[in-house]
Amino acid sequence: MKNDNQQLEEIITIESGSLSLREISHITSTPERLQFYEKKYPDILYSTLLMSLTHESYTEAQAKRLWSGIRQHMDKLNNILQRDVGLSVATLDYLTNCSEHLSAPKIIEQDKSDFVSRAATIDELTGLYIRDVFDVMIKTSIGNAIHNNTPLCLLMIDIDDFKQVNDNYGHMTGDKVLAELGACLKQSIRESDMAIRYGGEELSVIMPETKEKNASKVGERIRKQVEQLEFDGFSVTVSIGLGSLNKVCRTPETLISAADEALYEAKHNGKNQLIISQCAIREN
Ligand SMILES: Nc1nc2c(ncn2[C@@H]2O[C@H](COP(=O)(O)OP(=O)(O)OP(=O)(O)O)[C@@H](O)[C@H]2O)c(=O)[nH]1
């Protein structure tokens, strides 16, 4: 009887020009297997791998060089983070931040859902993107917004008194709350927005091409929807900080800290509210 790998090997058709992430993982899983495919498809292997991951065309020679850079970058990231970041995140980060081959990060915006769709990029409990993806996407989004002179907003969302939920109803119920909030967030945002589990009970939404006024409406909608969710005999609320790209907040660090400070203020003012960061003179 054939195992999964043998079956996959038989159906992989590089000539089709597009490979799934499962097929890419299979082809590149060991040096021996990669060599096998190199021999079988000497002129199209690497360009097809890159095309499938980025939707961009490269010559075979260019693609082979890029592939080697991506692999090294992935090893480096795995080492730093002490976990497998996955090929998609490594490729995304390498092409946007390390390699000059890709001049247009637009591909990440347009194809981000294909590009980062692998399980390694999604938090199992909430169904939202993991923090590593946030770290890459916030840089890319800020770069795009500055380059295209478009607005960009960031929401930082924290569950109020979540410790009490865990203490009163148990950790498993707490997990259920997080899962529901993840679903609620995904339903409330646009396709071009990105919802992330930023930390334990802190969630975040990156909102490209969104003015502060509109981001604030979305944040308010999220806050109200959360308030209405019913759990077993209790409900929860969230506090939200909103930061937007402006003359002062133009880096991931400053934008995150603007949203964080606003979140802190929302907590301080009594929770269950959205506060807009007062960081600098806003342009939008
Ligand atoms: N169930 C569950 N709890 C989590 C998870 N991650 C973080 N937490 C809990 O979130 C709680 C956060 O507590 P605090 O930082 O004290 O904040 P808080 O009780 O929400 O209070 P405020 O932020 O001031 O409203 C802690 O009890 C953590 O254990 C998780 O994955 N599952």
TrEMBL record:
Biological processes, Gene Ontology terms: cell adhesion involved in single-species biofilm formation; negative regulation of bacterial-type flagellum-dependent cell motility
EC number from the UniProt entry: 2.7.7.65
Pfam family membership, one: GGDEF
The protein's enzyme class: transferase
GO cellular component: plasma membrane
MF term (GO), any: diguanylate cyclase activity
Catalytic activity: 2 GTP = 3',3'-c-di-GMP + 2 diphosphate
Annotated PROSITE patterns: GGDEF
Domain GGDEF, chain residue ranges per copy: 150-279
InterPro entries: Diguanylate_Cyclase (IPR050469), GGDEF_dom (IPR000160), Nucleotide_cyclase (IPR029787), Rev_trsase/Diguanyl_cyclase (IPR043128)
The protein's required cofactors: Mg(2+)
PANTHER family: DIGUANYLATE CYCLASE DGCM-RELATED (PTHR45138:SF9), REGULATORY COMPONENTS OF SENSORY TRANSDUCTION SYSTEM (PTHR45138)
Name of the protein described by the UniProt record: diguanylate cyclase
Origin species: Oceanospirillum sediminis
